[in-house]
Amino acid sequence: MFPYHYRGKTLLKTIKGRVLICAGEENWVDNRTIYVGHREPPSGTEAYIPQRYPDNRIVSSKYTFWNFVPKNLFEQFRRIANFYFLIIFLVQLIIDTPTSPVTSGLPLFFVITVTAIKQGYEDWLRHKADNAMNQCPVHFIQHGKLVRKQSRKLRVGDILMVKENETFPCDLIFLSSSRGDGTCFVTTASLDGESSHKTYYAVQDTKAFHNEQDIDALHATIEFFLVSGVAIYTGMETKMALNYQSKSQKRSAVEKSMNVFLVVYLCILISKALINTTLKYVWQSDPFNDEPWYNQKTDSYKASFKDPGILRAFTDFLAFMVLFNYIIPVSMYVTVEMQKFLGSYFLTWDEEMFDEDTGEGPLVNTSDLNEELGQVEYVFTDKTGTLTENNMEFIECCIEGHKKDWGGFLVCFCFHFSYPFSKEELFFRALCLCHTVQVKEDDNIDGLKKAQLSGRSCVYISSSPDEVALVEGIQRYVCNLIVFRFELLEILSFDSVRRRMSVIVRSVAGDIFLFCKGADSSIFPRVTEGKIDQIRSRVERNAVEGLRTLCVAYKKFTRKEYDCVCKLLQNAKIALHDREKKLAEAYEQIEKDLILLGATAVEDQLQEKAADTIEALQKAGIKVWVLTGDKMETAAATCYACKLFRRNTQLLELTTKKIEEQSLHDVLFDLSKTVLKHSGNLTRDNFSGLSTDMQDYGLIIDGAALSLIMKPREDGSSGNYRERFLEICRNCSAVLCCRMAPLQKAQIVKLIKLSKEHPITLAIGDGANDVSMILEAHVGIGITGKEGRQAARNSDYAIPKFKHLKKMLLVHGHFYYVRISELVQYFFYKNVCFIFPQFLYQFFCGFSQQPLYDTAYLTLYNISFTSLPILLYSLMEQHVSTDMLKREPSLYRDIAKNALLRWRVFIYWTFLGLFDAVVFFFGAYFLFDNTTVTSNGQMFGNWTFGTLVFTVLVFTVTLKLALDTHYWTWINHFVIWGSLLFYIIFSLLWGGIIWPFLSYQRMYYVFMQMLSSGPAWLGIILLITVSLLPDVLKTHKIKPLARRQVFFNQIQSNSLQKQFHSNIKRRLYECLFN
Amino acid sequence: MAVNYNAKEEADGHTSGVGVAGGGAAGGAGKSRKPDNTAFKQQRLPAWQPILTAGTVLPAFFIIGLIFIPIGIGIFVTSNNIREYEIDYTGTDSSSPCNKCLNVSWNSTPPCTCTINFTLDQPFETNVFMYYGLSNFYQNHRRYVKSRDDSQLNGDNSSLLNPSKECEPYRTSENKPIAPCGAIANSMFNDTLELFHIDNETRIPITLNKKGIAWWTDKNVKFRNPFGTTNNLTALFQGTTKPVNWPKPVYMLDSEQDNNGFINEDFIVWMRTAALPTFRKLYRLIERKNNLQPTLQAGKYSLDITYNYPVYSFDGRKRMILSTISWMGGKNPFLGIAYITVGSICFFLGVVLLVIHHKYGNRNNSADIPN
Question: What does the record list as GO biological process (chain A) (predicted)?
Fold first, then answer.
């Protein structure tokens, strides 16, 4: 039944790829004068200066074989942490420092090497991809011959031929195509994510050159469907390459906190060094302290610092810095990165997040944001394809105001078509003709299973699922029988501003029709005839039911009118400047005075468990916003269906209609008054999301109203509106934004992101129109759904279905956050414990920078003795069970607002570290103070003292982690007890042999002698116990009390729900004491 | 990067193609992407989840209390039973017999000697350990700690003649390498202490055993005299010179061959640098002769000091300490008191928390039941 034109067109439909642009569209570059085919400019033209343009080589790799080492090192040392360690290392090399350069050089070398290998490997992959791209063959026309060359040899001005289904190697100006009308269809999926086929028009002057002969006088036959173009931007200047570079890096809140803490620790470090340097000079002011007879300075030292000036003090300061530098451990970065990288596998491995239908699981595109999943406060979700299935079914149409259900009516309409056409016929004709659906035979792309199942021979593809539904619906029920030929004259293609499309066709009888189909809001104003009121009421009723509606209208042209239209369009199409604008104007002129035919309704089913997921998210304290391009009523109905709005939700509307009635200012003022009246209530009950007696607000805003709010005003008072708007939003439990353009979605996300609380936002969507908001939000999640994979590819994480968001946030996000925050805090804690005794020791060794611990201990503490337990903890820990987290979404609130990395918590950990360090040091001090601790009267020296402190330290920090571990798998047992065992074995070995390669043997038998002493054992046990005591108290007493409060709140809020299963209650109680 | 992008797209297209084809045939290819259902990957490894409720923590507190308090009492009693006697013989006080020696310098000849009399009120029953103690002496100063050459002390002949740079400025003297080099060796304690029991005005010398005061491993492994064909230390140390402050070279530290040179125990003891600026070092052992008599009876004693070691210049102090030793070392009340304190705190906390828990637990239950 389809007119041939469509079939004809589809043959040339998929020239994928890199884009076709025309000069003049770009405002970032000046005009280019290019001589096509590198002909010499005819003499007499104005002076032409040949310009140098880059070749078409694509370089996405960062390094070459030669510059890898220097460039990679430079890149790595640009990271502030690495640079810091490099400085420490250099200081150790240059000046006489207490610890050997090995202590910081070795870990740094390790970290740098591992990173370099990783980056080198990635770059090698990029080189491979680049090469594949650069070497792929392209067809040139050179001196009248068709030449095959590698893509990278392409130069600006070359004429090239691109066959069907090939990718454009660079930006081209479209000269001609093998199609008579000089058009081609291009997918720009890799550029802007729109998978629809766009029509491009050849330059008017060259459009007639149908083959190479015309272009270069040779080669007469056309074997393929071809387009020819002249290269205009090549290589790294192409739109694609330019686009790609602007992608910015997202950083998580945890990482930001971590950096703040690092600065704090850097301050602590500097102040420690300053204090010690100052005290050193105070202490040394007594000459007998500075240089007693038994401890003379070396001649070289005296020579280099003749006068005790700034330089000497600075050297001392640096030496102290080196001594204490371990407080900022190089290993933390490595551990955090490993935790993120390895941890992200648990997400992809999750069986429950695997979708059987599509055979897809979650994808992790960046592991940097894992913990951000536990911090989400706002979820911005697309509606179609995300909340709903995007599985459209044409269920109703209404012609001339009469509702037609499927079933009986096909009989009614199929067979009588008299001339002139009846309205019904015209209606179906319009539906049949006015679309961009293409027929794809025996092909497999997204969403085709359905077609195979239903046993149809051909498959329809379109960028709009509504159209597919319509065409399929018609094919199924109506008109396989109707065969009419229409000649397609023009397509006035769809765009999101006009929200409609039209076709101009000529029937066999020679009548010229314009069929127009589009959103009701864009059709009704242009309609002059037809049963407008009936259809409008029907459309509205359908919309309330959550159906997607489209209106259909037509218009008949006379020959003369058509010529006029034709000219108008032609002029617009070939315009070099402002083509879009001119086309839009032309369309505007053409699509008016229409006659309304009817409306269609397409149902889009809700995704499974969408309501459940939204409910859980709301209970978890997350505000869910729906951003959609649909009309308000449809979107609102979906919101009710998925329980975003509940029965008792009071809806506030901020729509164009309302703003037309009152001024924007008044509307905003009224709304905020309504909302704030109850805000006292709201904040009080905020804690328990379940309370049913509180007033719930839902806000509905449309694109036009939003742009009014966002629009900067002349007097600069737009901030005021924004603030008010944000305040209203903050007090609404759910917000629905309808009629949104893709860019507006991103705008909304940005608005919330930058509001004064700086909430963490998450955007989820499946279509190319969601890409902008996915990129804008803190966390962008793509649905690997039907509208292509564009969203999934640009997202940070991709999941198969919306329902998987629940587990992703509530379980994985929660775990990730708890794990990494413990990791960060623990790392700072264990290094305070490690370094603070050394600081205290300076007070007892004349501020001489004498290290307390042996070099081996200093080096290996963070690398081996205490590294694995925390890494495995941060991968395996489950403080609450998965089931519990799923069942009780409110547990998510416990970690909201970066709760575990707040200053209070950070200070607690730091003070715990200080306390432990003081216990270690002074415990050992009083144990050793002027007495003997052996049963044979022999004395221990300073290395035994340090080893005792170190032993207590290693045991305490490891056992502290053991106390915090709530989930003891065999792996945890293995690494925790294994680490301690390793420490003991290492110490025995390290002190057991006279190491031939060492210049000193200070640790010889120190550890064993220490273990042979009873008081040392007793001291170690005592000090470990004391150090862990506050933590035992805190973990098992204070935390339960705080959590119990949450528990009671929940109980109270649940008091209306009398059915509170006793076993859930018991589990909750267990969890409190957990 | 753009290329990656395209390449990836192709890869995606490829795999999805496979997925669909497989889905049509048997669904096998689709299944292969499904994650394994292993306990590890699904984060369902069998795990011990200790639920540390009040019920388990409270007994822990009581148990710690009940264990620590008796241990503490035991240590405390042991520590109190240890006899310890300490004399400061620096001579800062003008009335002190050693006051005359206060400003002594190294190598003063003849050496300054002084005698201090003292009385032990109670007998020292078991073996007595004689220590010397120094105060305000920073043996743990970094410059000092590293000023030694362990290879030289280990008998390495090349290090003997070419000591480590770390020994500066005590590395060479008169163009000859110093053995043993370094500040530690150079400043070796060289007072001589002798103990006499005064029984009816007669001074009975008390035998002071000078062996067994250093770690066995130090004496036998870590410290060794240079190797050579001869046993004559003088020959072995040929080509080296004595440390600047020493009156005599290292091979004349003792008359006995197995306590001479680097393996002289006084030397080894000194070379183990102390952790804190106030320290003591083992000087001599006084062994109990028989079971009938205490090692040191109560009564009058005198300590003869050959005062060589100057400490006044850096405001230091010198002491002589006599101490008995138990299984837990010398007198140190800290450990016992600490154990008793910690034990008591745990016990106390246990009681307090028990009370709180009792009250809270009741409230909790009452809140639960109405549902």
Answer: phospholipid translocation
- Residue A394 labeled ligand binder: no
Q: Which residues contact A375 (CB under 8 A, 6 or more apart)?
A: A252, A253, A254, A760, A813, A817, A895, A896, A897, A898
Query: Could you say which residues from 95 to 154 on chain B have a Cβ atom under 8 Å away from some Cβ of chain A?
Result: 127, 129, 131, 133, 137-151, 154
- In single-letter form, the type of residue at position A318 comes to L
In single-letter form, the type of residue at position A615 comes to: E
Q: Is B217–A944 a contact, with Cβ atoms under 8 angstroms apart?
A: no
- For residue B342, give the chain A residue with the closest CA: A1026
Question: A214 or A966, which is more confident?
Answer: A966
User: Any known ligand binding at A770?
Assistant: yes
Among candidates B169, B186, B280 on the partner chain, residue whose Cβ is nearest the Cβ of A298: B169
- List the alpha helices (DSSP H) in A233-370: 239-244, 253-284, 287-290, 299-304, 310-324, 330-349
A206 annotated as ligand-binding: no
Percent of chain A with pLDDT over 70: 76
Please say if the pLDDT value at position B113 is more than 80.
yes
Q: What is the DSSP letter of A17?
A: S
Query: What is the Cα–Cα distance from A960 to A48, expressed in whole angstroms?
Result: 77
Helix H or strand E segment including A804: helix A804-806
Q: Output the pTM of the full model.
A: 0.79
The answer to whether A329 and A827 are in contact (CB under 8 A) is yes
Q: Which residues of chain B neighbour A1014 with C-beta distances below 8 Å?
A: 327-329
- Please, is A692 exposed, middle or buried when counting C-beta atoms within 10 Å of its C-beta (0-12, 13-18, 19+)? exposed
Q: Is A563 annotated as a binding residue?
A: no
Widest CA span of chain B, in angstroms? Answer: 116
User: In chain B, which residues have their Cβ closer than 8 Å to the Cβ of A848?
Assistant: 138, 140-144
CB A930 within 8 A of CB B321: no
SS (H, E, C) A996-1060: CCCCCCCCCCHHHHHHCCHHHHHHHHHHHHHHHHHHHHHHHHHHHHHHHHHHHHHHHHCCCCCCC
- Give A595's strand partners: A529, A554
List residues of A with catalytic annotation: 382
A944 touches chain B (CB under 8 A): yes
Residue A407 token pair: 């079933």
Which residues face A36 on adjacent strands? none
Confidence of residue A1063 (pLDDT cuts 50, 70, 90): very low
Does the CB of A348 have a partner CB in chain B at under 8 Å? yes
Using an 8 Å CB-CB cutoff, list chain B residues near A1037: 54, 57, 353
What residue spans of A607-717 are helical by DSSP H?
A: 610-619, 632-641, 656-661, 664-677, 679-685, 703-710
Cross-chain CB nearest to A296 (options B1, B183, B360): B183
List of chain A residues whose C-beta atoms are within 8 Å of the C-beta of residue B222: 994, 1001, 1004-1005
- Strand, coil or helix: B86: strand
Q: Within a 10 A sphere around the Cβ of A485, how many other Cβ atoms?
A: 11
Q: What is the mean pLDDT of residues A974-981?
A: 96
Among B4, B276, B278, beta carbon nearest to A60: B4
Alpha helix positions (H), B243-332? 265-271
A567 pLDDT more than 80: yes
Q: Is the pLDDT of residue A959 over 80?
A: yes
Q: Which of B106, B215, B356 to mutate to test the interface with A (most CBs of A within 10 A)?
A: B215
Edge-to-edge strands, sheet with A145-150: A145-150, A137-142, A159-163, A226-233, A171-177
Q: Tokens 């083509």 belong to which residue?
A: A579
Question: In this complex, do A240 and B2 lie within 8 Å of one another by their Cβ atoms?
Answer: yes
> Contact, A232 vs A156, CB < 8 A?
yes
* Radius of gyration in angstroms for the set of CA atoms belonging to chain B, rounded to a whole number: 35
Q: Which of B33 and A642 is assigned the larger pLDDT?
A: A642
